[in-house]
Task: structure prediction
Amino acid sequence: MAKISIIIPVYNTAKYMDQCIESVLAQTMTDIEIVLVDDGSTDGISGKKCDEFAAKDSRVKVIHKENGGLQSAWIAGTVEATSDYVSYVDSDDWIDADMMEGLYALTSVAQEEAGQAGEASARGIGYKNPFIDCEIVAGNYIVEKTGERRKETQALQPGVYTGAELDKIRRRLLGEEVRPVTMSRCMKLISRKLVLENIKYCDPTIFMSEDVNITLPCLCDVKRLAIAKDSYFYHYRLVGSSMAHSYKPNFLKDLELSNKTFREILKDKGIENADQQMDREFVMILLLVMKNELRCPDKDTAARVKKIFLREDIRSKVTGTDVTISGLANRLLYFTMKHPAAPVVGCMKMILGAYDKKTN
Result:
């Protein structure tokens, strides 16, 4: 059995997938399984490329399925995987050759093998590492965008967290300007069993922050969390047509569904300050709602912003929730949320437009 199953959802990404899959096949750690999930690609190329890679390398297996969205694709790959650990790579991204070796070295299994050789047999036949089914190793990543390349680092200090330290982290998983651990399912190694046990929380109708559907409950259940030092292995490609960086007319509706779902997850997992975390998180995501509205090409931006942010329930959350915001861009967006007057909205729209033009 391979030590890691790498799951790559594919949908009409023929332009980028060669670089992605070749970067995975080039891993210095060769004891891996690669699961390509063709989510009903319609370009006539992506699905065929998956089969071509499988024909060249026995470590590659392919799933062809009807289109069901990104979440359904990585779930299908996880169910099909056979390793104790899974890692997710989106097919328009790529990874460094030493990513799997570097992250696996931080698992409890690898550290036990390296530092306690022979002890397993001393513990008796049938011994099983206590963390193999309930741990996460998180690396860092690099955002790759035209005109911009920046490193993004996990907010938690590098190290291993267990017990009471994890309990403290769970009280602040959401609701901070910079989350202690990124909620992306990528740039991580995750115990496959931990994912399978929490797939029940995944809602296919959520498109914004959809990875939170799985990463949040996994972080609530994790018994060992390792944060890698440096380890900028993962390259996250931002393209102009990226779903995460274009105007979405139903963004607020999706936020409200996410708020309800994530609040229920925290409560179901017994997180005592679930409501406080989610109230802060709601305000933080409203910053993205504001940014989304400012990106709308229509000319009635000021009216739409005013309609949203003067709505009674949203207004009460914005004015009544204590949040800490330090980033200049977010402070400007937060000010606009609290004072959605036409001149303020117009000024912010110009600033954001200039930024987008510079970095696209």
Summary: The first strand starts at residue 4 and ends at 10. The two ends are 43 Å apart (CA to CA). Residues 241-245 have pLDDT under 50 and may be disordered. The CA atoms of residues 120 and 126 lie 9 Å apart.
